[in-house]
Amino acid sequence: MPRENLTQKRERAAEIEQRMFEHYGEGACSLDHVDPFTLTVAVILSAQCTDAAVNKVTPELFARFGTPEAMAAASIEDIEAIIHPLGFFRSKAKNLKACAQTVLAEFGGEVPRTMVDLQKLPGVGRKTANVVMCQAFRDPQGIAVDTHVFRIAHQLGFATRNDDTPEKVEAKLMKIYPQPDWLYINHQWVHFGREFCVARRPKCQECFLADICPSSGK
DNA sequence: ATCCCGAGGG
DNA sequence: CCCTCTGGAT
């Protein structure tokens, strides 16, 4: 099969994006939150655990420490006790407190609105910063590549074996998809990754992209 | 046994 | 570049 060129990838991506909209709309964020700070907290907590598990602990967490002021003043032990069912609870608790302190000390109590400043917050890397820029500020500066997006990009043939880091996959996707689509790709693909393109055994027989996916049935 | 909306540190 | 942090679900 001849290698697909960039123009062809873009055309296929446009068709995929249209179908994603038909199935998932703009892709609702499945992490419960009420503002940029609680979204940032929820995304930090979501590393290596399911969103459902995060949503189970955030009601109590936000009730007690739902603002930068409250979180910055909280004890690490109290935060750990609440988020304990999640993975990496020690480092996450430390990061949440330091993150809140940084928001207060460096950014006047407001979650910053640029990729550079967001990534100055402890616990916030490129993926989390991308989610906050898209979901909270509607200002896409990149594409959040998590485990789902990473896997699906390879399955769809938009990334190669050589693209072995989230950064490389993100760069490929940013060339293929127009910037307005960056807002929706992460959430739509996460839903898609849970429903059809699951890691273990993709449900290609039922998948609505099977006819335009190079990995279908493999 | 493997996976889940990663980030920090060495 | 690698390693570590972590527990629950399937």
TrEMBL record:
EC number(s) from the headed UniProt entry: 4.2.99.18
UniProt keyword DNA-binding, yes or no: yes
Catalyzed reactions: 2'-deoxyribonucleotide-(2'-deoxyribose 5'-phosphate)-2'-deoxyribonucleotide-DNA = a 3'-end 2'-deoxyribonucleotide-(2,3-dehydro-2,3-deoxyribose 5'-phosphate)-DNA + a 5'-end 5'-phospho-2'-deoxyribonucleoside-DNA + H(+)
Binding site for [4Fe-4S] cluster: 197, 204, 207, 213
Enzyme class: lyase
Cofactor: [4Fe-4S] cluster
UniProt cross-references to Pfam families, sorted A to Z: EndIII_4Fe-2S, HHH, HhH-GPD
Gene Ontology biological process terms, A to Z: base-excision repair, AP site formation
Residue intervals of the HhH-GPD domain: 45-195
Molecular function (Gene Ontology), one example: DNA N-glycosylase activity
Transmembrane found in the keyword field: no
Protein task: DNA repair enzyme that has both DNA N-glycosylase activity and AP-lyase activity. The DNA N-glycosylase activity releases various damaged pyrimidines from DNA by cleaving the N-glycosidic bond, leaving an AP (apurinic/apyrimidinic) site. The AP-lyase activity cleaves the phosphodiester bond 3' to the AP site by a beta-elimination, leaving a 3'-terminal unsaturated sugar and a product with a terminal 5'-phosphate.
UniProt protein name: Endonuclease III
Species per Swiss-Prot/TrEMBL record: Slackia isoflavoniconvertens
